[in-house]
Amino acid sequence: MKEIHSNLMKQALRQAERAFELGEVPVGCIIVRENKIIAKAYNQIETLKDPTAHAEMLALTSAFDALQNKILKGCSMYVTLEPCAMCAGALVLSKIDTVYFGSYDLKTGACGSVINITNNKSFNHKVKVYGGVLDTECAFLLKAFFESKRSGQNGYSVN
Questions:
Q1: Are 109 and 117 in contact (CB under 8 A)?
Q2: Looking at 17, 56, 82, 147, which residue is catalytic?
Q3: Is 56 designated active site?
Q4: For 69, phi and psi rounded to 5 degrees?
Q5: Residues 108, 156: Cα–Cα separation, whole Å
Q6: First and final CA of the chain: distance in angstroms?
Q7: Are residues 42 and 19 in contact, defined by beta-carbon separation less than 8 angstroms?
Q8: What pLDDT is attached to residue 153?
Q9: Torsion angles phi and psi, residue 22, rounded to 5
Q10: For residue 155, with 0-12 CB atoms within 10 Å meaning exposed, 13-18 middle and 19 or more buried, which class applies?
């Protein structure tokens, strides 16, 4: 794995840490074009009371605004958790080039773990996907969040 991918995933992890601090599931995301971060976001589902406020969706919206375009050719996304079906569909529609993700999501992952929307032969765009970038670090943050939630620490509770 190239050092640049690790460094960029660390930027996504910083976003995930912000989500953690707010009591959100700690998923963070950045979008890069020409080695420059053009968008960054973290999960805000609870904050915005919006089940679509995933880090990827918020970062995509920010990138569209930054480029003044709905197409993200030449862009790469770094996200700490494998995108779900909604986010993977949005990635295909945005025509983003590449997605690098940290932890595999064996329950809802839609970039190869459960289903593979990003490389479905029926769609007109395929996204290059690379999983497991800083997997240990990304998984640790998610595990810590859910353990604290189960134990009721930091004001989180299962109820």
A1: no
A2: 56
A3: yes
A4: -155, 145
A5: 23
A6: 40
A7: yes
A8: 63
A9: -95, 5
A10: exposed
CA atoms within a 13 Å half-sphere pointing along the CA-CB vector of 45? 14
Residues 6+ apart with CB under 8 A from 24: 42, 43, 44, 45, 46, 47
pLDDT at 154 (0 to 100): 54
What is the pLDDT at residue 33?
A: 98
- pLDDT score at 150: 82
Angle at 47 between CA 41 and CA 88, to 5 degrees: 45
Give the pLDDT score at 61: 98
Report the alpha-carbon distance of residue 79 to residue 153 in Å, rounded: 26
pLDDT along the chain (159 residues), means of 10: 90 98 97 97 97 98 98 98 98 98 97 97 96 96 90 52
